[in-house]
Amino acid sequence: MKLIKGYRSGVAARLAGLPVETLRVWERRYGVSEADRSPHGQRLYSAEQVHRLGLIKRVVDQGHAIGTVARLDVDELAALAGTPVATGVQALKLAVVGAALAQRLGATRTAPLLEIVAVCPQLQDAAGTLAGASADVLLIEAPEMTADAMPQIQALRRAVPAKAVVVLYRFCDSATVRRLREHGCLVARSPSDASEVAVLCNTALTGTSLPPPGPTQPATPRRLSDEELAALANASTSINCECPRHLADILMILASFERYSAQCANRNAMDAAMHEDLARSAGHARMMMEDALERLAYAEGLPMPVK
């Protein structure tokens, strides 16, 4: 029986930076790839196809319609995305921390190709051992990753000025994962498949999966209390719509979520950073909606509370 290897839809979508539902819609409507099928009928994507899906996501994020790019080849997509196209057997150059990982990668041909230019078995020795290595990607594998490793990783990044950093782990607390991502690392559980590692390295290098940073400044205090918002919501306007009421409802919900996130940050030290970010984001969203309500009140002559 022929053995068909590849990534299932969920894994392929994650590696390409897509929700799996989006991938399924693109397949159904636009035929974005010609994936093989497992004996049970499941779609299986090769590493090359996953790389192409990542490029499609990137050009769609840049504003191109999926219907116009779904059938383009890798070279055409790379040109649209502004990503250099590899020629011949050009490979990603890796500086690797982790002897077992380096051995696994060296024994497998992947797409994109990987060239290991330097290896250090242990993270604590890596800054000195790998200093000056010329690499596209700094690839770090640590079975147990903790916050104590952050200074070592920072020192290693200064010693090896790679274009991207990938951190793989088996066990790691969520706060450390978030700190690594905040410092621009692509962080993932260590995969057993070398081809998946190659796709992660390529994704980190092209920058297709980094989320936008959250607000860094705290939000200003609320301008309107719930009672003042209720009074504005019930005020009569010359426009035949419920906009004042809807804006008041949105502001009360945002203020409530802002308080809730701040309380979560105080209760749970491990998730404090994430909840602080959520509270700041909700506060900044509230500030924008307060501005919108103030503009509406001015246009409609609604009585704004005097502060």
Give structural attributes.
single chain; 307 residues; alpha/beta; Multidrug-efflux Transporter Regulator, Chain: A, Domain 2; Rossmann fold; five-stranded parallel beta sheet; two-stranded antiparallel sheet; globular
Spatial order of the strands in the main sheet? 4-3-5-6-7
Give the helix level as a range of percent: 40-55%
Number of domains: 3
H/E element sequence: HHEEHHHEHEHEHEHEHHHH
Largest sheet: 5 strands, parallel
What would you report as the Rg, rounded to the nearest angstrom?
25 Å
Regarding CATH, which class of the largest domain?
Alpha Beta
Question: What share of residues are in beta strands?
Answer: 5-15%
Low-confidence segments, given as residue ranges, are none
CATH architecture of the largest domain: 3-Layer(aba) Sandwich
Q: What's the overall average pLDDT, rounded?
A: 82
Number of strands: 7
What class do helices, strands and sheet pairing give?
Answer: alpha/beta
CATH topology of the largest domain: Rossmann fold
Instruction: Give the CATH superfamily of the largest domain.
Output: Response regulator
Count of helical segments? 13
Envelope shape: globular
- Cα(first) to Cα(last) distance is 77 Å
